[in-house]
User: What shape does this take?
Amino acid sequence: MPADQPLVVISKSGSKRWISAADTAARKLGLKLGMPASKAQAIVANLTMVDADPSADASALERLALWALRQYSPVVAVDGADGIVMDTEGADHLQGGEDLLISGLVNGLRGRGLTARAAVADTWGAAHAITRVTPAETTVVPVGGVAKAVTGLPIHCLRLPADTIHGLRVMGVETVGELSAMPRAPLTLRYGPEVGRRLDQLFGRMAEPIEPLRTPELVEAAKNFQEPIGAAETIAKYVRRLVGELTAKLETRGLGVRRSDLVIYRVDNTRQCIRAGLAKPVRDPARLSKLLCDRIEKIDPGFGIERLVLVAIMAEPLEERQAASSLIEETVVDVTPLVDILGNRGQRLYRVTPVASDVPERSVKRIGPTADETGATWAAKWPRPSRLLANPERIDVTALLPDQPPAVFTWRGKRRRVKRADGPERIFGEWWLRPKEHAAVRDYFVVEDEAGERYWVYRAGDGVDADTGSHLWFLHGVFG
Amino acid sequence: MSRARNPRVIEELRDRISHLEGSTAKKAVVLPFGVREMDERLPGGGLSYGALHEIAGGGAGTVDGAAAALFAAGIAARSKGKVLWCLTRPDLFFPAIAQAGLHPDRVIFCEGDKEEDVLASMEEGLSFGGLAAVVGELVRLPMVASRRLQLACEKTGTMGLVVRRWRRQTEASDFGNPTASMTRWRVSVLPSEELPVAGVGRARWLLELMRVKAGECAEFELGACDAKGRLCLLPHSANRPDTSTWRGSRAS
Assistant: This one.
């Protein structure tokens, strides 16, 4: 279907048919939501109309929410018929901050062909209102800025029944600011407590916890406490018990956990989460409970914890495998437990692997710590420095052009006389990566000063042709 | 430390002490350097597994730690199994480490934001038990931290290698402070091997064994790690550079 072809979704109720969704091309032609289908057909001749399927929409939205639950935050729920709400507290830094989190989310969805708007705010109500009204794709409301951000918004974004909205409009109330400035008692008398409740939720005067999405295929174990618990040892004891329960459930299904959430409900109706990720599916209770118990100190029990829930958010098939006998072959040590422990502490773990590139900074690539062994190593037999500066540093050099090594150079304020040198090793630019590098050349030299310190220096350019580089000298690495 | 009159008596006493220490008296497992003069100086005839070893650079190497990293890589290359390399400044150029015989598949890097993260990761790696060696690049190594690492090493028999590198050359006097490590090395670069033609020959190091438990200090002039991570002894050069200027100020 061509992209510029106008497309609308038609909802039906009895014999009444109206537009429930329209794409950009259709909106440009003047079609509006709620317009009767016959009127739309009269305006646009070749209009493509698709019948609405609310149940398929709901299940697709739930799939999307489940994906977000695995990817972004432990607390994700479906919001109405057209949205997803998630608690990003404590989860945004993993994506580089709130801004990057939502812009990454919107871009990721666009890559899958979905148009989305996202907002981060202090309250569910505010984020709900802003995403549905503001035309901007992403909005981040600063902490404490909700009151200022929502005063100008129209009241239909308040999650109130349609007849209440209509009644308020009749009274001449158009914006949230106007509504919140009205006396509460007459409003409640006329429209019921719902208006006040939604306003309080919007401004954060009333708590509105998000009940995370759960589907039947998520394996979980929960424990309610008659008396609230708070001591670290007690929490650890029950976490171990829950892990045991969870792994037993997983075993019956033949699954291993890849990502699990421990949700902690406190008596004051707040919630905290600990998420533990694993490099490979695991069902070993000792390993899983170590990962969770490592971070018990991060839990703030407050006045006590009344409920613990452990969920296997991401589970993968795991089959029992026979261990290799030490008589036949050498036992290969599996390092994934260590990788899991360090990775869950927030350390960056990686291995390096060669890349077929002569440019030194491009010849190394980071791969996952548990990636398959490649067996590849660097083919070059030329000596390479054991420390490579991230940014080559300018040095002042006295050297004979075109291809003599430097006789004297000054680096970081210290003048060094070159005793021995080797080179040049000419490295050409990779024009297939960047057209600018078409003619670029670097001439690398190994130089050794009088004290025996060896450095890797290069000249940008071949020493003759100015097109190949600036002919400035740089120090790129230090040999051991 | 006074020289023992009769080494056999000392040996007997050591055996008895290790019996007293408990039933878990492990056999001392060592990784020999393959250089007779060096192995003679080390108790057990090599660098012991299940112990912490400190390595620092000399001169400009106190800041870049290039030779020290290569020396640690050479030791790790000759051991068997995976290596955990913990650091905060990711400026290691792995092709050079691979040239010292350490295959990239064997090394898992663990990059932290703080020194404390490196210490914690090292301890976790050492007490994990399945690794051949754990290398950590550290600025400060307090006594308590080094003792924890040493105990973790002893428990599992993993070798701990600490590459000390400082922000400034003047801070390197910290290397004199006592730690619980088994040996302490300083690697300084020497002018490379003379070639009959113009060019830079095999790198040479002045390796100082500054401290060793149950042994004596020594220094060696060595050829740097070859493609298998091995060192080799070189004849003393007659015209050695005057390094006393920087060594005198930081003698431990």
About this structure: The first strand of chain B starts at residue 30 and ends at 31. Residues 24-248 of chain B form a domain with the Rossmann fold fold (CATH 3.40.50.300). The longest helix of chain B spans residues 7-20.
